[in-house]
Amino acid sequence: MSDSYARLLARSREIALLGSAAHLLHWDAETLQPKAGVAFRAEQFAYFGGATHRLFTAPEVGGWISDCEAAGYAPDSTEAANVRGWRREYDRATRLPQELVEAHERSKGLAREAWIEARRRSDFAHFQPHLEILFGQAREMADHWGWQGSRYNALLDAYEPGADVAQIRAIFDAFRPQLREILPAALAKSAAAPRLEGEFPVEGQIKFNAEVARAVGFDFEAGRIDASTHPFCSRIAPGDTRLTTRYDIHHFASSLFSVLHEAGHGMYEQGVPEGDAYGTPMGSAVSLGIHESQSRLWENLVGRAPEFWEHWFPRAAEHLPALRRYTPAEVCASVNRVEPSFIRVEADQVTYDFHIMLRFEIERRLLDGELALADVPAVWNEEFERSLGLKVPDDAHGCLQDIHWSAGLIGYFPTYTLGNLNAAQLFARARAEEPAIDAELARGDYARLLGWMRRKIHARGSALLPMDLMREATGAPTGVEAQVALLRAKFGLAAS
Amino acid sequence: MSDSYARLLARSREIALLGSAAHLLHWDAETLQPKAGVAFRAEQFAYFGGATHRLFTAPEVGGWISDCEAAGYAPDSTEAANVRGWRREYDRATRLPQELVEAHERSKGLAREAWIEARRRSDFAHFQPHLEILFGQAREMADHWGWQGSRYNALLDAYEPGADVAQIRAIFDAFRPQLREILPAALAKSAAAPRLEGEFPVEGQIKFNAEVARAVGFDFEAGRIDASTHPFCSRIAPGDTRLTTRYDIHHFASSLFSVLHEAGHGMYEQGVPEGDAYGTPMGSAVSLGIHESQSRLWENLVGRAPEFWEHWFPRAAEHLPALRRYTPAEVCASVNRVEPSFIRVEADQVTYDFHIMLRFEIERRLLDGELALADVPAVWNEEFERSLGLKVPDDAHGCLQDIHWSAGLIGYFPTYTLGNLNAAQLFARARAEEPAIDAELARGDYARLLGWMRRKIHARGSALLPMDLMREATGAPTGVEAQVALLRAKFGLAAS
Question: Considering the domain boundaries, does residue B439 fall inside one?
Answer without folding.
Answer: yes
